[in-house]
Structure formats: structure tokens, C-alpha cells
Write a structure and sequence with these properties.
The protein has about 375 residues and is α/β, with parallel strands linked by helices. The protein is built from eight helices and 24 strands. The structure holds flavin-adenine dinucleotide.
């Protein structure tokens, strides 16, 4: 019998393997990943400095340990080059050169790539981004002896890095085209509160500005914004977003939109191929967070073990890891009709998004208002 093969050794790949082993201890299971296969918690990348984490100390279990725990064949440094969905076969480049592998069922847990701003200048290649443990190691080394940092992007991950870096003693300036931090998630009063709370730590904001050029200036980087203003920094970190990895699936003729398209049973358009995690667009929803991928992993494991199971999403609030301004966001569904009502006090913000009939569809809680997270989440309709 051909094995079940999972491509990806991130939280999605490993969680579906773990959930599957709870239901089926015997089915042959292979995990392939381009990286070293170490299991770690990716969310810690943006608050690792405060916890004094290095790239190695982030590791919870190495690939070999994971193989033992999961009773699986785990193959690090193995790049899947192509999928032949008709023949149920993969083409691989790994430590043993180019090989092929047949599967009975295939799971795509490929993650997402960092988006790079189209920057000109000879320093553009020196702009760093952190999307995995290797990036984090490079970033930590690059920080040695540096002080003045530019951060491109004031979204969720940008704000987390800004808070973490400032706490570790760096001077941080954040550039974002939006007029406030977390522009896509927070209404204006909450955005101001977040900007002021992080500003009190010393973070400088450059709202309405985006970098267009980065040039080397000796050891430093000179950053020029779209409106022609220039400033010199020791290091530039970009956190402008992620894009689901869809190329491998698309090349195999598997339907992809913003992510690899699946139904609620995590089935792609190709027979016996499923997808979950940051690469997947599940029933029209692209939710690159841990809780949704865990819900998907549980449902998919049941399906792989023989009981076809659809995923359900309750409303899933996201905790923003900015200790200087505790925040929880649960955005309304994309395009939902309604309006925000904000109650801003000196110590927090309670922002509720309601439809025309007064039904709660989303919220954003900052400061002391985060205590209401559970109570409000319980009032929200399920997402799926
Ligand atoms: C800095 C940061 C902070 C975050 N903080 C939070 C948070 O606080 N809360 C939250 O809910 N979410 C957070 N997230 C999002 C969360 O971490 C992700 O949703 C989750 O880790 C995605 O897991 P994944 O397994 O889908 O992808 P990944 O972890 O990216 O794993 C993808 C895997 O696929 C492999 N791969 C890809 N293509 C191939 C190929 N062709 N061949 C072989 N292997 C391949 C890679 O090597 C890798 O092993 C954060 C993300 C980042 C970057």
C-alpha cells in the first residue's frame, strides 16, 4: 500500500500528522519538507527577542524526534518539484538526488511566501524578512551591533516585531501606507490607541509612507519613501505580508485562487489531494492563523482515517502579541455590511462591529477591554 504523504513540516503538516496518528497508528506516513524538519511554534518568531530565543532554542523537537513520536518517515531537505496527480506520484529533489515517490493520499501543507516590496537601489537585497526559523537566525545575527531599525509594514506581524525590538533596546521606525497600525483589522479609534501605546515605548510611526528605494551607505542603509524623503538606518526589516504557495499545485493543474482551493473537507480539485494551512483557501476563506489550521488538521485527519469530515470554524479571535498594548481582534467577514462602534477610554478600546439589525459580527479589544474576549466571541456567528 502506498503511503499517505504530507508535503510540509510546519504547524499544518505536523498537526495533521499528529491528529492522524491519534486515529490510525498503522497507516504508512511520509512527511517531506524543504527545511530541516524541526518542529517549532512559528508565532514565536515575532516575540522571540523578549523571550531571549535563538533560532536553535526555538526548536521544540528535531526531525528525528518527530519521526519517533509520529511513527512516520520524515525527510528533511527534500524539495517536491512536481506532482503527477493522475499517476499519484511526486518528483523530488533531496539528499539522495532526484527521485520519485508514489502516494495513496497527498496533503499539501506548503505555507506561504513573504511578499517583497518592489524596491529599487543597491540595498534592496539587504532588506530582511522573517518567515521561518532560518530567517530568524539570519535576522538575529544581523541585529548584532545595530541600533536604528526601519520596519516596513505596520500590520499584525509588523506591530509585534516593533514591540519586541523596542523592548530589546532598538530604535524602531515603522513605515506603512495606511494612516494607522493594523489598518485592515482596527477601526480608527482603536488604531490611534495602538499607535499611541506603542509610540509611548519610543516607536516612531511614518504613516502614509512606503519605502521605494534602499541604497547602501557604508555599513548603513538609506531608505527613500515614495514622496522622496530619505533617512538612514542600520537595518531594514520588511513585514508587509505573505502570499500562499500555490505554484506547485497550479503546475499540477490543481485549482488555485488566492490559495489552493479546497472544499470544507479540505479536498482540492485533484483526486486524493488535500490542502490546509497558510497555502489553502478553504471554502473561500484564507485564514493564515494557527487556530483555523488546527481545526482543519482535525477534520482532515478524520477524513484520511476513513471518516469523511467537513471542517467547522467557530469565530476565532486572534491575539496580537504586543505586550505594550494587549489586543485581540476578530474581524467581521470580508465585505460584511455593518458599522463599527468604538468606546475608547484612557485604558482600553472596545470596538464592536454590528450589522443593520444590531447583530455582532466582529470586534477589536485593546488594553483592559481584552478581558471581554471570550464573552464576545461566544456571541459571534460561526465562520463556517
Ligand atoms: C512572524 C509570524 C508571527 C505569527 N504569529 C501568529 C500568531 O500570533 N497567531 C497565529 O494564529 N498565527 C500567527 N502566525 C501565522 C502562523 O504561524 C501560520 O499560520 C502557521 O505557522 C502556518 O503553518 P503552515 O504549516 O501552513 O506553513 P509553514 O510553517 O510555512 O510550513 C510550510 C512547510 O512547507 C514546506 N514546503 C513548502 N513548499 C515545499 C515544497 N515544494 N517541497 C517541500 N516542502 C515544501 C516548507 O519547507 C515548510 O516545512 C504568524 C506568522 C508569522 C510569520
Amino acid at each position: 500500500m502506498n503511503p499517505i504523504v504530507i508535503i510540509g513540516g510546519g504547524l499544518a503538516g505536523y498537526t495533521v500528522a499528529r491528529e492522524l496518528r491519534k486515529l490510525d497508528k498503522a497507516v504508512p506516513l511520509i512527511l517531506l519538507m524543504a527545511d530541516d524538519g524541526a518542529f517549532y511554534s512559528k508565532p514565536m518568531l515575532s516575540n522571540g527577542l523578549a523571550q531571549k530565543k535563538t533560532a536553535s532554542s526555538l526548536i521544540l523537537s528535531g526531525a528525528q524526534q518527530m519521526a519517533g513520536q509520529l511513527q512516520a518517515d520524515i525527510r528533511p531537505y527534500t524539495w517536491v518539484r512536481a506532482i503527477d496527480s493522475a499517476a499519484h506520484r511526486l518528483e523530488l529533489d533531496g539528499p539522495e538526488g532526484s527521485t520519485s515517490l508514489e502516494y495513496s493520499k497527498l496533503v499539501l501543507a506548503l505555507g506561504a511566501d513573504t511578499i517583497h516590496l518592489p524596491l529599487s537601489g543597491d540595498g534592496a537585497g539587504a532588506v530582511l524578512s522573517v518567515n521561518d526559523r532560518v530567517d530568524y537566525g539570519v535576522f538575529r545575527e544581523a541585529l548584532e551591533g545595530k541600533k536604528k531599525l526601519a520596519l516596513l509594514g505596520g500590520g499584525l506581524i509588523g506591530c509585534e516585531f516593533a514591540n519586541d525590538l523596542t523592548g530589546a533596546g532598538f530604535d524602531v521606525t515603522v513605515f506603512d501606507l495606511a494612516p494607522q497600525p493594523l489598518g485592515r483589522l482596527l477601526p480608527p479609534g482603536a488604531g490611534r490607541f495602538m499607535a499611541e501605546s506603542l509610540g509611548a515605548l519610543g516607536i516612531q510611526w511614518r504613516f502614509g509612507q512606503s519605502a521605494s528605494r534602499v541604497e547602501r551607505e557604508g555599513e548603513h542603509l538609506r531608505l527613500t519613501t515614495g514622496d522622496g524623503q530619505a533617512e538612514t538606518f542600520d537595518l531594514v526589516l520588511s513585514a508587509v505580508g505573505l502570499r500562499p504557495r500555490i505554484a506547485l499545485a497550479q503546475a499540477a493543474g490543481i485549482e488555485a485562487n488566492r490559495g489552493i482551493v479546497t472544499d470544507r473537507n479540505l479536498r482540492t480539485s485533484a483526486r486524493d489531494i488535500h490542502a490546509l494551512g497558510d497555502c489553502a483557501e478553504v471554502a473561500g476563506l484564507l485564514l493564515p492563523f494557527v487556530l483555523p489550521l488546527m481545526a482543519c488538521a482535525r477534520a482532515l485527519a478524520a477524513t484520511l482515517a476513513g471518516t469523511d469530515t467537513a471542517v467547522s470554524y467557530p469565530a476565532m479571535p486572534v491575539v496580537v502579541k504586543t505586550p505594550a498594548c494587549p489586543a485581540v481582534v476578530c474581524p467581521p467577514p470580508m465585505g460584511a455590511a455593518g458599522a463599527w462602534q468604538e468606546a475608547v477610554t484612557a485604558t482600553g478600546v472596545r470596538a464592536l462591529f454590528r450589522d443593520g439589525e444590531g447583530k455582532l459580527l466582529g470586534f477589536a479589544l485593546l488594553g483592559d477591554a481584552v478581558a471581554e474576549k471570550q464573552a464576545l466571541a461566544a456571541q459571534l456567528p460561526a465562520w463556517l
